Amino acid sequence: MGLTYDDGPGGTTTQLINALRSANLRATFFNQGNKVGGNTALVQAQRQVGWVGNHSWSHPHMTQLSQAQMTSEISQTQQALQQATGEAPKLFRPPYGETNATLKSVQAQFGLTEVLWSVDSQDWNGASTAAIVQAASTLQNGGVILMHDGYQTTVNAIPQIAANLASRGLCAGMISPSTGRAVAPSDTPGGGPTTTTTTTTTTSQQPGGACTATYRTTQQWGDRFNGEVTVRAGSSAIGSWTATVTVTAPQKVSSTWSGTPSWDSSGNVMTMKPSGNGNLAPGASTTFGFTVMANGQWAAPTVSCRTP
Hints:
- The structure is a single chain.
- 39% of the residues are buried.
- It contains 6 helices and 18 strands.
- The strands form 5 sheets. Strands 3-2-1-7-6 form a 5-stranded parallel beta sheet.
- Helix 3 runs parallel beside helix 4 and helix 5 (129-136) runs parallel beside helix 6 (152-167).
- Strand 15 (260-263) and strand 16 (269-273) form a beta hairpin.
- With 308 residues, it is α/β, with parallel strands linked by helices.
- The model is unreliable at 191-208 (pLDDT under 50).
């Protein structure tokens, strides 16, 4: 069966994650796009105990919107969550469970599967922890329960939900992008361990001030990993910067964020420049990120920085 939590990140996200981890449960988090930007770390932490889905940008009544507005709500959230996790969501839950043919067609454009629920916990309606646990006890194989990020009663229900599932021989699974029903997980939590390996590379000594580029792996799955590069100005301000990221074949960069990339003919050397103003004050820094498809090769990329 599928545990789902709507309306994050924020609210009680940290408590939810800690409770799920302690109970050895996994869940799907349907996030609002307008909450993602300031809570990237929370989204990444969600991915370590489950999966992340799209819940629109601002939680409107989607069926009251034009098709263009629907598209904007979904598109912005897809982009925000892809930047946060390195992968675009495959699941969409319409706010309030309201849907129609137009919304379904927009979802299809983004390759999204609509996910509703078979059990409503009523946590949004003031349900007690006991009532939430009772609702979860009615879940059957393949079922999905609606819960929300933001209620302490919902957090408190997790240990009892775990005990009830275990007593009935059920597990908290993933939601299939094919059917929208809960199925047994097909990956390990987060798709693999998160790592924080750091590699510092060269310092340029170009006119206009030196810069350094520092790389770290922020997340890793069974087939890919996310990398982050920190570009830092030296003792003098710089007007712009150019970073070079070299991956080891057969690795390939599949997506990037917070910069403007270009590649050499081999596809193994990526040059990243600022998306906008590249000014950095003395000692100041900025970051950009990317996802690397490992293709069996897990060597960390090498990075360097020069000015401009």
